[in-house]
Amino acid sequence: MNRIDDLFDLTALLSPAEIDWQTRARDLATTLIAPVIDADFENKHFRREIVAELGAGGFLGMHLTGYGCAGASAVSYGLACLEFEAVDSGWRTLVSVQGSLAMSAIWHFGSEQQKQEFLPHMATGAVLGCFALTEPHGGSDPAAMVTRADRDGDGWVITGTKRWIGLASEADLAIVWARTDEGIRGFIVPTDADGFVARPIDTKLSMRASVQCDVEFNSVRVSGDALLPGVTGLSAALSCLNEARFGIVWGVMGAARSCLNAAVTRSTERSVFGRPLGANQLVQQKLAEMFVEYEKGMLLALHIGRQKERGTLTPEQISVGKLNNVREAIAIASTARSLLGGDGITSEFPVMRHMANLESVRTYEGTDDIHTLILGRALTGLAAF
């Protein structure tokens, strides 16, 4: 525990099972990821071996039930996302891509055979998945996708390109969304299929310990049983995005907590003008405001989590959480950086790494603008897209 945890006392609002999930996630993140994350960020290195540890801990697809998945509560899942992102956004992203996107797509829309074949191995981390939706010229408009899947005998041929696909060069399978004559459909595509090409985007200044790729489908042929039979249309892909957004609502507060912790610690250890930095009123004001926004973000995440558990959560409410919590996490990181002075731009502190990563989180799963327009539409009944 630390001053932030003690002052907030979130555990008073949590069940023993939820606290256990959070504690185990924090232990894993601090023992396995934290000691190597600065070097991995610097070297653009993704540690595939940690995936199996996440699987052994039950964190992959943990909010799903059956098929080897843990069946944890929504809040437990959120708390795990919080702890992984407190170390680095890239590892919360992995949990999101594997569990909230790839596994959720199969769990919700796959056949029983597909669920039995893939989900148990994905839950252990033995099989890694990715989620291929975004296209180079589509961005925030997935309905503009041009990737196609055309029937070819008893199978399908997929042609097109995707961009910013997390884990694609590491994954064993891809959930690919493509336009068909019947509408947009999802497919389970082995990444070793002929014509599947994933190229890591090497110029990133953010999420450097993670992997995002450009993907090409050069007449990739898959069998008929690769089709996800449960739904036709873009709504299926968007529902998976909402699962991932839920994890973001919690995760970014972990990054915010890490930055706030660094600022509080530094303000008590560093002396300026003959006294601790934290003894100055302006410094205390900044720390207090950072803490208040962190606490508000956590309470918002908890409220959204309880709604999800009750089955009453709406996409618009998820947009409130994603818009607010990412925005406030970035503001907290920025203020923390200023309190750390020149040292704040070094890798001696995690703040600049979190700031860079949070800019990616702000962009994916819906930009600030998109979530603002979602809420504007909900308030007025008028679409401004």
UniProtKB/TrEMBL annotation:
Q: Matching InterPro entries, A to Z?
A: Acyl-CoA_DH_CS (IPR006089), Acyl-CoA_Oxase/DH_mid-dom (IPR006091), Acyl-CoA_Oxase/DH_mid-dom_sf (IPR046373), AcylCo_DH-like_C (IPR036250), AcylCo_DH/oxidase_C (IPR009075), AcylCoA_DH/ox_N (IPR013786), AcylCoA_DH/ox_N_sf (IPR037069), AcylCoA_DH/oxidase_NM_dom_sf (IPR009100)
Under which EC number(s) is this enzyme classified? 1.3.8.6
Kindly state which keywords UniProt assigns to this record, in alphabetical order.
FAD, Flavoprotein, Oxidoreductase, Transit peptide
* Gene3D superfamilies in alphabetical order: Acyl-CoA dehydrogenase/oxidase, N-terminal domain, Butyryl-CoA Dehydrogenase, subunit A, domain 2, Butyryl-CoA Dehydrogenase, subunit A, domain 3
Transit peptide found in the keyword field: yes
**Enzymatic class:** oxidoreductase
Domain Acyl-CoA dehydrogenase/oxidase C-terminal per the UniProt entry, residue ranges: 233-379
Q: Where is the Acyl-CoA oxidase/dehydrogenase middle domain?
A: 130-220
Provide the cofactor list for this protein. FAD
Q: Which reaction does it catalyse?
A: glutaryl-CoA + oxidized [electron-transfer flavoprotein] + 2 H(+) = (2E)-butenoyl-CoA + reduced [electron-transfer flavoprotein] + CO2
In the record, the note on similarity to other proteins reads: Belongs to the acyl-CoA dehydrogenase family.
**Know the name of this protein?**
glutaryl-CoA dehydrogenase (ETF)
